[in-house]
Design goal:
This protein is α/β, with parallel strands linked by helices and 155 residues long. It has five helices and five strands; from the N terminus they run E-H-E-H-E-E-H-H-E-H. Helix 1 links the parallel strand 1 and strand 2. The two termini are 15 Å apart.
Amino acid sequence: MDLKLVAIGNRLLGDDGIAIKVIQCICERLRKLNITVVIGDTDYDKCFKNIDNNDYVFLVDSIFSGIKPGTVMVTPLNTHNISHYIMYSTHGLNLIEYFKTSNTNLKGTYIGIEIGTIDFSSELSEDLKASFDQICSEVYEFVFTSLNEMNNKKS
């Protein structure tokens, strides 16, 4: 099983690019854990073309559900409950369509980062700027802990 982390978002729409900015910040540490990092922007074909059925995927995305900006939500990822947890994704409908039309039995975790605003800007909102280091830490710690749990199950 290979481990992959896919970050999606639009860097030109302010907070919508939070997943990409977070993963760029922690990318080297993730690679040291033998995780293949894919910065997909909004190109789902690029994101998923190299994912095999045996891979475990961490999918990092922006969400907008009305809770505090900077909150990190984590939930299991599989094709059976995709519509339930991607309903707040800013890319939700496109992702749902991708999974419905692909033959991939995706295993992994969806990591959603709550955003404050979407606007035409390459800058994050003040809320996300203020909590950026904490978001990076939370995402990295979740991935690191998940890998340790997977390794312990193998033993």
